[in-house]
Amino acid sequence: MARVFLTVLISTLLFALIYINIRALSRPHHGAADDHNAFTRILEESVVSSGSIRGKAEESNDEAFDEGDNEKVAELEGKLQGMTEFLGDLKVKLNKLTQQATSEAKKETKQRETSSQKVGRLAESKEEPPSQQSKEPKAKTNPTGMNILLLYADDWTHHTLSSFHKTQPPNTILKTPTLDALSQDGIRFTHNCVTTSVCWISRATLFTGQYMSRHNTTEPCCWSGMPKPKEKLKEAPENWKELSVYELLKKEGYHVGHAGKWGVYMPWPKSVDFNVEDDGWHYRQIGDKLWHITEKNEADALRFLVTRPRDKPFFLNVAFFATHAKDSDVRQYMPQNSSMSLYAEDEIPIPPTGTEEAWKKMPYFFSERNEGRTRWRARYQNYTLHQHMMKNYYRMATEVDSACGVILEELRRQGELDNTFIIFTTDNGNFHSEHGLADKWYPHQESIRTPLIIRDPRMKDSDKGTTNDAFTLNIDLAPTILGAAGIAPPDKYMGQDMSQLYLKQSAYDQWRKEFFYEHPVISKASYIPSSEALVRKDWKYMFWPDYGYEQLFDLKNDPGEIDDLWNSTDPKVKEVLKDMKSRFAEL
């Protein structure tokens, strides 16, 4: 009899779960909370309607996974009508069956507890005694219950945010209203940096919480003029399985998704429930629709949010490809046609260090063959070209900002906005003609400093809308993400949980005051030389291993890193250099 009751109970719960998911997909959603009206109002005013959101999510169907999702939703919706009456009849019976089953369960429990043979009870339930159980931590369900959303852009330097220009106003033209609103409802970290400024290595650091020299992901993927890499590995390295935030979150009960650029020349973690990779293009014909990459990234993110199971928290990395240039195309930056009127009448200032004089002050081995210089010629070598490229770059940045607004609005409609830990950051910075260069790679501020915004439901109201100048790094992202889920980070992680900076008063004083930067040689030293640095807020020591070349910059008085003080005779400068070289050797 108890078995019958149990069967009926399980069937009922399954039907109820399907019913709840269908209702969640089909019903109109209302605001998650009234205490962040300014933020939610911006989302409501700046994005498309809920119907359009659902339509966009369903349009993106270039993967077999997409077809299956849509068919699954349609099938479930068809079952809903016949299920409603059945659930109504079953509800009354369920109460009676539950009472009866509970009564019998209590009797059985009492009988078992009277038995003195504890080992026998363990054998009956097929569990191992505690001393023999696996030492592997068991999966937890909803450790904190918080969802985690990572909005991860590409090639944004730290000032590619209009909120930055409220405090540093050399260029007030760029508009990113969604991210500005996010920073007003969270914290903007003003000294966030990457430990290696290049796409695939920075992403590997994000996923594993380790420096390049530890995770060893140094092989680039498919660059023109370089040897073709080997076939993708059939399995990720063992250390990735134990360190990857994807793997660890999935193990702890999260629904895990990735939409956009993967960027690491290794196979996907098998634990990713939703996986749509798109990068390397700005426009592509998919089926009968011409997609822009940012539009596609947005639609895939929406599809994840619309189709996700509602009985578990989620982690989603929306890895936008913009504002990465399409290096093989002479146009470089190709925004959406609807954005072409943006910034049309504006004049984008040339950076103070975007001069021939600044280029001539670069180390002697930076020749016209250097890849950063080659890309400078393609993008910024004259005023007209600089205006054209930067306007298109800004247009693509504003498009990413708009896509972030659409995604956040979907969270608000679902009532999940205030139950979601949100991070916006990027993989590396970018030269926009500073030092006569384009792109990234080197230890200069434009290359290593990136935007970082965190909006955390656990934040105090007094912390919202503030800035924090602690040295946060991309090695801190993995432990911060796991911390938001209530998961202890692996011992091999090299970063720290950044939430300590606003949840613990003493954390700032104990936070790092310097960090080590590293970058490998790519192809050959004349193309992209290797570089290392010891970075402090006021000083930076650079070392170029391929040439044994050293530099020292006073960032407080020379933030543009123009005047190399390595040969200075000033006793104070010589003392700083001695101290930094000693510390650099330790690292």
TrEMBL record:
Residue segments, region Disordered: 50-70, 102-144
Ranges annotated as biased composition (Basic and acidic residues): 104-139
Name of this chain's protein: Sulfatase N-terminal domain-containing protein
Top-level division of the source organism's lineage: Eukaryota
InterPro entries hit by this protein: Alkaline_phosphatase_core_sf (IPR017850), Sulfatase_N (IPR000917)
Pfam families: Sulfatase (PF00884)
Family from the record: Belongs to the sulfatase family.
Acidic residues bias (residue ranges): 60-69
Domain named Sulfatase N-terminal: residues: 147-487
